[in-house]
Design a protein that fits this description.
Elements: E1 3-14, E2 17-28, E3 32-36, H1 43-50, E4 58-63, E5 66-67, E6 81-84, H2 96-103, H3 112-116, H4 118-135, H5 151-164, E7 169-173, H6 181-198, E8 201-205, H7 209-215, E9 218-223, E10 226-232, H8 233-236, H9 240-247
Parallel strand pairs: 3-8, 3-9, 6-7, 7-8
Antiparallel strand pairs: 1-2, 1-4, 4-5, 9-10
The structure holds adenosine-5'-diphosphate (ADP) and magnesium ion (MG).
């Protein structure tokens, strides 16, 4: 299997806290992996390192064979990595469609030709955005400003924007966080369909256990910066260490 994501010995320290302690994680092309662990386990910090929001103290991160840690942070999207955040980070005054169009901007050619064909470029961005809005059931609110829309809709807008970039690697940080059970279930079906149709590699950080165990065939569990489990969902969900850390009460 071709490795889309290779993380080795990833270590991040915040003062006395070791947020990640020599964590390794490999995801194959087209894999859908769940990343679980209690609060403070280091899940978001791991995403921060892959997207160059944070430089690790040690370790390697490769995406599609490319060493990400030597890339300038603004080149990460061009490398085919897209990410969503726990709290939606949409532009409130832009419409839903415009928010999604910002995700597709990396496809715009720069310079003279883009200026000369700006109208066509804009039209193509809009068409691409509308395809994604349709997939996410957001066409009806396409012209609505993001401000004032319900939280569950904003979470979908945030994911739609990431998908519009057509990444090779999509990192979803708690996509079901704050959603009602029905919203979480419909989002789960959406992520599953998205993964099937695009074949992109997806890593999902999620607290909502039903969501992540139902969605992913493979689960990686972090606890206090250590990887404590990595394997097929049916094995990991029965692992006593995982149950103690995530599934049961502590
Ligand atoms: N900017 C920061 N400054 C100091 N400590 C941080 C910072 N970000 C995260 N941490 C600490 O690193 C650890 C891992 O955090 P995080 O990656 O957010 O965990 P998770 O996403 O699994 O809940 C926690 O102990 C957290 O308090
Ligand atoms: Mg987090």
């Amino acid at each position: 299997m071709v490795h889309m994501l290779e993380i080795g010995r990833l270590t991040v320290r915040f003062g006395g806290v070791t947020a990640l302690d020599a964590v390794g994680l490999v995801a194959g092309q087209g894999e859908l992996v769940g990343l679980i662990g209690p609060n403070g386990a280091g899940k978001s910090t791991l995403f921060d390192c892959v997207t160059r929001r944070r430089d690790p103290d040690d370790g390697v991160v490769r995406v599609g064979g490319q060493d990400v840690l030597t890339l300038a942070p603004h080149l990460v999207a061009g490398c085919g990595i897209a990410r969503t955040f726990q709290q939606p980070t949409v532009f409130p005054r832009l419409s839903v469609r415009e928010n999604v169009m910002t995700g597709a901007h990396r496809f715009g050619a720069a310079g003279f030709w883009r200026a000369a064909f700006a109208w066509d470029w804009e039209r193509r961005l809009r068409e691409r955005a509308d395809d994604v809005l349709d997939m996410f059931g957001l066409l009806d609110v396409g012209d609505h400003p993001a401000a004032g829309l319900p939280f569950g809709v904003l979470k979908r807008v945030e994911i739609a924007r990431a998908v519009a970039a057509e990444p090779r690697l999509l990192l979803l940080d708690e996509p079901a966080g704050g959603l009602s059970p029905e919203e979480a279930l419909s989002l789960m079906a959406l992520v599953r369909a998205l993964h099937r149709t695009t074949g992109m590699t997806v890593i999902v950080v999620e607290h909502h256990m039903e969501f992540v165990l139902g969605l992913c065939e493979r689960i990686v569990c972090l606890d206090l910066g250590h990887k404590i489990a990595d394997g097929p969902t049916y094995v990991v969900r029965r692992d006593p260490a995982v149950i103690a850390a995530c599934l049961g009460a502590r």
